[in-house]
């Protein structure tokens, strides 16, 4: 079977991109052909992948994406495939992997009504409708049940077109027997003493992930805690506005913002707390990566995977509507209470041993290769 995978950009450190790669590799391992349509590919191309770099040149992103869809449609007419799988919303997909939140819901709740007059809005709204409208034939792989009611509310999507998937944490994120030695080596490398506290924030898209909230919470710590605490943020994004914020708050030496790395399991073992106060987040894979590594989590309840943190008692959730003061207090409480963090760590590790947090990519491949019968 020949499969076509469509995504606007591939780079090694994005959550959507990692999911795409692992699902495509799972299909490839079962003997199927993989063609990838993308505007940009950064990183190594796996053996056996047919890469089609789409030559869209428009200045504005939404115009480039429109050119992308038109070019892909024309190429597929010349070189047909058995199934088209999209990791971004676009027309004429057989299967859509729903890594992103509902755009229409975001616009209606967070944007000025005048935004809906823009060409950008018209494009993204139309491309989302092409996937979720009742008349669409696209089947939808859902990685977070939290967003399904939004899509059904705005588009009337039939419930039977949604197919839930479990999380897909890589097993190499789990803490191993040598975790204490790995932690010690990491902390020596980064100049952290036994009494120092390390906050980690991991994920591209610093604004959406709430890095500004994390910096504000660090600044609000009591002096005795703040003097012992450092924050390392990792992701593929522009750090400059957050470095300016940190400098204005007198935190310049206590914060480091690094590009994405491929040693995240080691970094998670070196931290004392993952902080992830996202404004919105369809899933939040890093929450579960921290959980299975035994790293306590402080996050917002808007994240699709936040309920796992609550179920496991692996950390604290900040409720909706968000209040910065609540985050500030929770951060101070957790950093001042090593016994509480140790409890969250134990509970997270125990949960990781009994819950299915790992099979997303294989089950997504199962569906891609054997989808539901067509709707009448």
What would your notes on this structure say?
- The protein folds into 2 domains: 2-166 and 359-369, Glycogen Phosphorylase B (Rossmann fold, 3-Layer(aba) Sandwich), CATH 3.40.50; 171-354, Rossmann fold.
- The chain contains 16 helices and 15 strands.
- It is globular, with a radius of gyration of 21 Å.
- The protein is α/β, with parallel strands linked by helices and 376 residues long.
- The protein has helices at residues 15-29, 61-78, 103-110, 119-132, 148-155, 179-189, 206-209, 211-219, 223-226, 240-248, 264-270, 285-293, 306-312, 324-335, 338-354, 360-369; strands at residues 2-6, 9-10, 33-38, 40-41, 49-53, 83-86, 95-98, 139-142, 162-164, 197-202, 229-234, 255-258, 273-276, 297-300, 315-318.
- The mean pLDDT is 95.
- The protein has a 7-stranded parallel β-sheet with strand order 5-3-1-6-7-8-9, covered by helices on one side.
What are the segments in which pLDDT stays under 50 over at least 5 consecutive residues?
A: none
Shape: globular
Query: Order of strands across the biggest sheet?
Result: 5-3-1-6-7-8-9
What CATH architecture of the largest domain would you give?
Answer: 3-Layer(aba) Sandwich
Number of domains: 2
Keywords:
Rossmann fold, seven-stranded parallel β-sheet, single chain, alpha/beta, 43% helix, 376 residues
SSE blueprint and pairings:
Elements: E1 2-6, E2 9-10, H1 15-29, E3 33-38, E4 40-41, E5 49-53, H2 61-78, E6 83-86, E7 95-98, H3 103-110, H4 119-132, E8 139-142, H5 148-155, E9 162-164, H6 179-189, E10 197-202, H7 206-209, H8 211-219, H9 223-226, E11 229-234, H10 240-248, E12 255-258, H11 264-270, E13 273-276, H12 285-293, E14 297-300, H13 306-312, E15 315-318, H14 324-335, H15 338-354, H16 360-369
Parallel strand pairs: 1-3, 1-6, 2-4, 3-5, 6-7, 7-8, 8-9, 10-11, 10-13, 11-12, 13-14, 14-15
Helix pairs in contact: 1-16, 2-4, 6-11, 8-14, 12-15
